[in-house]
Amino acid sequence: MKLLLALAASACLSLGTSSTQAQAPAPAKLLAAQSEIAFQVKQSGVPIDGKFRRFDAQLVLDPKAPQTGSVTLSIDTASATVGFAESDAELPQPLWFGAAKFPQATFRSTGMQGAGAGRLQVTGKLAIKGTTQDVVVPVAITQSGGLSSATGEFVVKRLDFKVGDKEWADVSLVANDVKVKFKLVFSGLGPL
Predict the structure, then answer these.
(1) Which of 23, 29, 131, 180 is most buried per CB count within 10 Å?
(2) How far apart are the first and last CA of the chain?
(3) Quick check: is 1 in a domain?
(4) Is the pLDDT of residue 8 over 90?
(5) Are 94 and 88 in contact (CB under 8 A)?
(6) Nearest to 38 by CA among 152, 176, 140, 165
(7) How many domains does the chain divide into?
(8) In Å, how far are 51, 55, 188 from 109, measured between CA atoms?
């Protein structure tokens, strides 16, 4: 009888261990209305601020084991706005985002690592207008009231993606460096 109980206990423990190991964290839910993806570029030396109005993100992250996490971000390129009607009408055109042919810009992580308390270094592939580049994105995560905010900023070279092509390739008119800033708010992320 003792042998049967020992075998049963052993089986239960091994089942419990394997099911725990197999469980990945549930995806966190993006709260788009509280989130923002913005950009800044200089035109003739003057900073112009813009944003994307429509985007989505999928985040799977165990804050205790960030190297197992992943993030995918998709941005509706036709939703870019700088707040000026004439410029907003030009942004989806072929010389800029080419939204009819390339309706989505995407970021897919290829790796994550912890970089200190509440900080991550995320590497991934950024695809805009049919061109893909490797990028490294520093991310800070803060938590309050059951929500998690992932914030950060990085710089991309617009001409690497042929954004602002042909006559707009002159960097004295529109700078090549574009600063991208984001605040993505999620529910359902585990505690840091």
Answers:
(1) 180
(2) 45
(3) no
(4) no
(5) no
(6) 152
(7) 1
(8) 22, 16, 20
Under 8 Å between Cβ of 37 and 75: yes
53-70: pLDDT as tens digits: 999 999 999 988 999 999
Tell me if 16 is assigned to some domain: no
Nearest to 74 by CA among 32, 104, 109: 104
Residue in the structure block whose two tokens are 């999928």: 58
Quick check: is 7 in a domain? Answer: no
Task: Give the global pTM.
Answer: 0.85
Q: Are 161 and 15 in contact (CB under 8 A)?
A: no
Coil vs helix vs strand at 8: helix
**What residues contact 89, with CB distance under 8 A and at least 6 apart?**
none
Specify the pLDDT at position 102. 98
User: What CATH number does residue 168 fall under?
Assistant: 2.40.128.110
Token readout for 158 is 């617009």
In a domain, 11, yes or no: no
Residue 23: the pLDDT is 66
Residue 92 identity (one-letter amino acid): P
Cα separation, 143 vs 150, whole angstroms: 9
Binned at pLDDT 50, 70 and 90, residue 5 comes out as very low
Tell me the residue range of the domain where 150 lies. 25-187
